[in-house]
Predict the 3D structure of the following.
Amino acid sequence: MNPRLARLLVRLYPRVWRERYGAEFEAMLQTGRGGLRTSANVAWSALHERVVPSPGFKTEPSQFRSWCVRAPWAMFGLVPLLLLAASYFVACFILWSGWKIFLPGNDTPFVPIDGFAIFYFQVGRLIYFSAPIVIGWAIGLIAWRLRLKAVWPAVGWVLIALAGGTAKVHASRPVVPGGAGHVRMVFGLGPFGNGIPDGLFHALVILALTALPYLVWQLQKARSVSAA
Amino acid sequence: MRSTRHVVEPQNGSALGHFSDPPLFVLASLASGPKHGHAMIEDIASICGVRLGPGTLYGAIARLEQQGWIEPLPPEERRQPYRITADGLRVLRAKLATLQQFTRAGLGRLEAR
């Protein structure tokens, strides 16, 4: 294997693991055959070592962990909301700039488009729709990784679900001829559908999707404990 | 024990898959004498047809060493050989005996059909 690639792959492992096995493992990788499978195997094993460290290789509590314990309201409430706001800002900026670039004469960006504009707007749409789910999954992963109780992660999921479910994008152009269009976000429960407000329905869907991986991990953990 | 899923299968691997327990493979390989990483991979491939990826191998080595079932020997150039300990031999015997019992029972049931 290429020595540079071998060194890079070894660096994926946690520091404490590298201090013990790094040199010999790197030497082994350098003298062995490379290839995508080998690289993928090492990368996956390194990730596994980070998530589930071998006995005796557990790292000291990190700064991140101590923040999660000292200020869970910030780490699971405020930070996810700020991340969601940043994602929505990027999505709205893409919509606004795409409107200016590809549809300068239109009163709204929500019209049929073709060519590169489709890809451009889809990026914004992807960010808009996936942001609450990805942030929710990140909350679950951190809670699971740090073995935290589900209370604060649950608060984070509810906040993210409410923000994501009730958010709507509005685009309007002022009546002034040649005036620039405005893209803004509003939050509201919206009209009734399925017996409950649409916004609440969307929030419940987001909540279920974001909490699902964490619940599966907890279920697996409970099963492995009862089996042992 | 470590997950046994991350195994680089040989090109002509059986469609039925292989029994795969990397720590057990490492112990079984070291039962015939000390070996370094590459030698273990080749030895395991020859005895059970499974080629462990280097990450999987070192995951198993790290766990076995922490449990005191294998130990490192002085390095040979850049290679690091390992040998099985007395505890490791005892564990390997116990595991293989269980497997043997399981195999006998399973084959007996198949023959009875």
Summary: The longest helix of chain B spans residues 86-112. The first strand of chain B starts at residue 7 and ends at 8. The two ends of chain B are 34 Å apart (CA to CA).
